[in-house]
Amino acid sequence: MDKIKGKVWIFRDCIDTDVIIAGRYLRTFNPQDLADHVMEAEDPNFASNVEKGDIIVGGWNFGCGSSREQAPVAIKTAGVSVVIAKSFARIFYRNAINIGLPVITADIEVNEGDIVEVDVEKGFIKNISTDKQFNIKPFESTMLDILEDGGLVNHYLKNKGDGK
User: Fold this and answer.
1) In the chain, pLDDT over 90 holds for what percent of residues?
2) Rounded-to-integer distance, Cα 57 and Cα 85, Å
3) Using only C-alpha atoms, what is the Rg of the chain?
């Protein structure tokens, strides 16, 4: 998996799935419609200002609340390349991996707007803006394969019948 590089958006502790994508927008199955309203409750301008490759850095318990799969879909479709947080709700973490959105548990020092580079294979996050580097546990090969294939379903379809 290639290195991920993007601009940081910072969000508080306990960002729940209703903050990520409010229930009133769940009447659609169109991922772009969800992305158009992602993080609206926390930052009304996020969806219109986030750029492809940007990175969300959250606090503790990111993605808590319901098990709605639309939350990571909205984030990924908006262009976010990775979510880094001090901790994740387990179901959000699993849903993110299932749709091919990298999520990393780490406590890093960054400011909003910093440029960060992530290498999930070698196990580091580098804040290019401050030249600080943070070590993380490298992703295992199975996780990398799932992410590179664009999620669990794509990974399964790609590998069905070959014994993997």
Assistant:
1) 93
2) 5
3) 15
For the question of whether the overall pTM of this predicted structure is more than 0.70, the answer is: yes
In order of 37, 85, 106, 146, 156, the CA distances from 153 in angstroms are 25, 25, 27, 9, 5
Phi/psi at 107 (nearest 5 deg)? -110, 100
Burial 6-44 (b: 16+ CB within 10 A, else e): bbbbebeeebbbbbbbeeeebeeeeeebbbbbbbbeeee
pLDDT tens string 109-160:
999 999 999 999 999 999 999 999 999 999 999 999 999 999 999 999 998 8
Residues 84-97 have pLDDT tens digits of 999 999 999 999 99
* Token output for 34: 């969800």
- Please report how the helices 70-77 and 90-98 are oriented relative to each other, as an axis angle in degrees rounded to 10: 50
Strands (E), the chain: 4-10, 55-58, 82-85, 103-105, 115-119, 124-127, 132-135
Contact 104, 82 (CB under 8 A): yes
